């Protein structure tokens, strides 16, 4: 048999083998899927809202020993885009991302070398960015002003409620922590509404929170985590198209037992 004939037969055999092998992507093993399943938090396990200072806020900082004769204008400090404020005699102070009490403690400590009575009280006088975001499978997704204490049920109701296609069992609460990392917590919204009549505490919202109601049409368990979070980050405008990666996500999904999903 000639060399050319052998080569042709080998090529035909290779093509037939390739045709016989279906070009499909198989699902991962059951163990992998189980590890990536969403774990829901109960209302008691979800983080309690914390009042934090945001860039653009105006802080009122008053020394407790300040006399009434001192001008009130001098007590107002707008937080710069980098989260800092400039305070007389002590220089810049990091305010963004901290509670007013934290800021007050640092200012008091740094004024100790200047005043005999250095204690100050810090309050947020203006909060232009006092908003929460509701998106996903709700009737009217959008941005809502926080005029007072608001919980998840009130925020979703303000959108007109969830759509029939919503997956109410895996609603995501996205909250930025002190380090600026977007923490993701999943909870059962339908169960939350049912538990409300039994005295369970509601899920309160804080400034900058995002509530995302996913669609029940998204596929398997791994997509349920990765695609949901990808959608909610894009809705909020976090630049997910550039930063989101399937294997090394830039967000952090929390689980009730502290394990990594």
From TrEMBL:
Membrane keyword on record = yes
Cell compartment(s), UniProt: Cell outer membrane
Q: Where is the signal peptide?
A: 1-20
Give start and end of each Polysaccharide export protein N-terminal domain.
51-124
The primary location reported for this protein is membrane
User: One of this protein's Pfam families, by short name?
Assistant: SLBB_2
Is Signal included in the keywords of this UniProt record? yes
Origin: domain of life: Bacteria
Membrane topology label: Multi-pass membrane protein
Query: InterPro entries from the entry?
Result: Poly_export, Poly_export_N, SLBB_dom
Entry keyword set: Cell outer membrane, Ion transport, Lipoprotein, Membrane, Palmitate, Polysaccharide transport, Porin, Signal, Sugar transport, Transmembrane, Transmembrane beta strand, Transport
SLBB domain location is 131-213
Residues annotated as coiled-coil are none
Q: Which family does it belong to?
A: Belongs to the BexD/CtrA/VexA family.
What is the protein's name according to its record?
Polysaccharide export protein
Lineage, highest ranks first: Bacteria, Pseudomonadati, Pseudomonadota, Gammaproteobacteria, Lysobacterales
């Amino acid at each position: 048999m000639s060399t050319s004939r052998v080569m042709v037969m080998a090529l035909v055999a290779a093509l037939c083998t390739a045709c016989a092998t279906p070009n499909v992507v198989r699902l991962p093993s059951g163990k992998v899927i189980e590890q990536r399943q969403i774990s829901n938090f109960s209302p008691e396990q979800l983080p309690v809202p914390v009042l934090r200072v945001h860039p653009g806020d105006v802080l009122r900082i008053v020394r407790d020993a300040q006399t009434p004769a001192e001008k009130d204008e001098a007590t107002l400090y707008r937080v710069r885009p980098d989260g800092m404020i400039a305070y007389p005699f002590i220089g810049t102070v990091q305010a963004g991302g901290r509670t007013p009490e934290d800021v007050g403690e640092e200012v008091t400590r740094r004024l100790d070398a200047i005043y005999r009575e250095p204690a100050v009280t810090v309050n947020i006088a203006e909060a232009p960015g006092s908003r929460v975001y509701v998106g996903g499978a709700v009737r009217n997704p959008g941005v809502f002003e926080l005029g007072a204490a608001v919980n998840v049920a009130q925020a979703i109701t303000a959108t007109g409620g969830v759509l029939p296609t919503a997956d109410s069992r895996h609603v995501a609460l996205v909250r930025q922590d002190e380090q600026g990392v977007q923490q993701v917590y999943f909870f059962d919204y339908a169960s939350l509404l049912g538990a409300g009549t039994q005295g369970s505490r509601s899920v309160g919202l804080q400034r900058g929170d995002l509530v995302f109601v996913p669609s029940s049409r998204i596929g398997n368990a791994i997509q349920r985590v990765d695609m949901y979070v990808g959608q909610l980050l894009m809705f909020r405008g976090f630049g997910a198209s550039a930063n989101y990666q399937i294997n090394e996500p830039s967000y952090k999904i929390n689980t009730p037992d502290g394990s990594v999903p």
